[in-house]
Every structure is written in C-alpha cells, then in structure tokens.
Amino acid sequence: MNGNLVRVTIPASTANLGPGFDALGLAFQLYSVVEMQKSEQTTIELVGKELQGTPADKSNLLYQIAAQLFEKAGLPVPELAIRASSDAPLTRGLGSSAAAIVGALVAANQLAGEPFTRDQLFEMATRLEGHPDNVGASMFGGIVVATMPEIADAPIPFIRLSPPVGLQALVVIPEFPLSTEKARNVLPQVYSKQDVVYNVGHSSLLVAALAQGRLDLLGQAMGDRLHQPYRAELVPGLKDILDGATAHGALGAALSGAGPTILCFFSTEEEREQLQEFVDRVMNGHGISYRVMILQPDEHGVQVEIHQT
Ligand SMILES: Nc1ncnc2c1ncn2[C@@H]1O[C@H](COP(=O)(O)OP(=O)(O)O)[C@@H](O)[C@H]1O
Ligand SMILES: N[C@@H](CCOP(=O)(O)O)C(=O)O
C-alpha cells in the first residue's frame, strides 16, 4: 500500500417521487461506504450480505469507474485496494448503482489530487448512470431537481432543496430484485398529450410543494402516468398501495426509482402505525416477502475522510 486511504460515505436515494421521472431524487440516511487506496496490486473486498454476488475483480463497477476517472484526468490508472460495504440493498430501487458511481468517482478524484470539481463529478456520474436523479441526491444530499442539458457535454443544471421538516419515509422492500434496465424496458416510446400534461402539472406542483413544506399537497402531487402504470405489472402490490396509501396514513406514495421498493411518506407516529398495518395487509395478500425500513432524509450528500497510512 502507499499514500492516503480515502473513505467515502454515500447516501442511498429514491428517484422520481412519482411524477418526476428521471428528474427528482431524495437522499436517505442509509449509507454505503467505499474505501480506496493506491496499491501494488488491485484487491476488492466486499463486506456484508448486500454486496454478495458482486464481482471482486477488475470488472467490479467501483474499479471500472475509478479507472475511468484516472483516464479522464490524463493519469495512469493505478492498482487499487478497494473495500466496500452497503446498508442499502442492490437492485431494489434505492439507487445502489448511483451510490457506487458517486462513491468511486469521489474516492478516485481524491486519490488523483482532485482534478475535478464536485459539479464536474456530478456531470460524469449523470452520464455514467444515464439520468441525474439518484446521482444528484447521493452527491449533494437533500432533494435534487435536475435535467439533462440539450447540449452534449454541457454541465447538468440542477437545484438542491432541503427536505421539508418532519418528512419521513416508510419503504417496502420486496425480497426480489428488479434491475433498472428491465424496469425501463417496459416503458412506452410514445405518450399521449393528456398523460404528458398530467405529469408536467403534477411534477411542477410536487416541486413547489416540497420547496414550501406543503406536506398536505403531496398526496395529489405525487400522481404519475409516465412510468408507474407500466411498472405495476412487475411489482405485485404496487397498484394497491398507490391506490390506498393516502387513506391509510400516507402523505403520498410512489414507486421508489425503478422499483420494486415502494415509498410512502409520513410525518407522525400515528401515520406510521396505520401505514405499517396497511402495507403488511397488502403485501401479505399478494404473498410477497418483503421488509420495511423507516428512512429519514440525508441532508449532507457524499462525505469524504482521508486517513494517512
Ligand atoms: N457497491 C457496488 N459495487 C459494485 N457494483 C455495484 C455496487 N452497487 C451497485 N452495483 C451494481 O449496480 C447494480 C444495481 O443497479 P440497478 O439495477 O440500477 O439497481 P439500483 O440502483 O436500484 O440498486 C448491481 O447489480 C451491481 O451490478
Ligand atoms: N429515473 C430512474 C431511476 C432509477 O432508480 P433505481 O434506484 O431503480 O436505479 C428510473 O425510474 O428508471
């Protein structure tokens, strides 16, 4: 080993929040950690059950992304000792690939002597992930509203908002994986004018409601016609939860990212209890194994520590 060990902590995230397809992301206090150090030989240590099955050689996403950063900086790609863990499950719609990309870019950038700014890293992460919602939230924390620029290679325009005070999420995480790629492939190529207008209105109202802390509007504002109706066939229980959540304690509900996790916002203990009972009834009715997590928004985004070795 030689030089500094960089330890990066990255929040998981939920994307879309219903109507904001590929545009809205919210970071959660649920973290993955990437440690990276230059070394004589590349080693990849994956700690914990969530990363089981992830490759432990140079085909690992973390190594691949780090190597790309060194190349982009015009530096030789070093051998790397990488150690990673994740409290967030993979392929469940909680932004694990975005967190991995952000973590690897930020760690490698530090080892490379910080050739890129945070905004440039966000731009690189967005192009690698294909959309800015999860990577924005993992990078900057809070709520990120972003869109792809018209001009190739231009900076990604975004605004970060602080989450409304008291907003919490009950997330229902089915035991089965659903890759983002598969869940994107069920979406249509073309939408009706009515559906597009519906989503423009709902997404706009949602951003305004989040900016002003209007939790009372979330239930209406989180309606979506662009992705959830098509993905419902892949996620048993989704339609029932979306239809019934606000009558059972939720401020609003959505598919988390591409799924299969389902997100229900709440703010009081009474709402949480009511919701828990409701989602248990729905999921058990569909015979689906799942777990529930209560998650708070993360306000800080990716965090870096440097240890001298
Ligand atoms: N820490 C990690 N190390 C290596 N690969 C990872 C890591 N985290 C996620 N991935 C990759 O990302 C994939 C999951 O991405 P995706 O299908 O977009 O689901 P999601 O981002 O919703 O968890 C995993 O199958 C794995 O290939
Ligand atoms: N906007 C994307 C978000 C994918 O999120 P993930 O957490 O499932 O990777 C989409 O809806 O496809």
Automatic annotation (TrEMBL):
Residues 60-142 form the GHMP kinase N-terminal domain. One of its GO terms (molecular function) is homoserine kinase activity. Residues 207-283 form the GHMP kinase C-terminal domain. It is found in: Cytoplasm. Pfam families: GHMP_kinases_C (PF08544), GHMP_kinases_N (PF00288). Its EC number is 2.7.1.39. Keywords: Amino-acid biosynthesis, ATP-binding, Cytoplasm, Kinase, Nucleotide-binding, Threonine biosynthesis, Transferase. The keyword ATP-binding applies. Its main location: cytoplasm. It catalyses: L-homoserine + ATP = O-phospho-L-homoserine + ADP + H(+). SUPFAM superfamilies: GHMP Kinase, C-terminal domain, Ribosomal protein S5 domain 2-like. The keyword Transmembrane helix does not apply. ATP binds at residues 89-99. Coiled coil: none annotated. InterPro entries: GHMP_kinase_C_dom (IPR013750), GHMP_kinase_C_sf (IPR036554), GHMP_kinase_N_dom (IPR006204), Homoserine_kinase (IPR000870), Ribosomal_Su5_D2-typ_SF (IPR020568), Ribsml_uS5_D2-typ_fold_subgr (IPR014721). Pathway: Amino-acid biosynthesis; L-threonine biosynthesis; L-threonine from L-aspartate: step 4/5. Belongs to the GHMP kinase family. Homoserine kinase subfamily. Catalyzes the ATP-dependent phosphorylation of L-homoserine to L-homoserine phosphate. HAMAP family: Homoser_kinase. This is Homoserine kinase. It comes from Brevibacillus choshinensis.
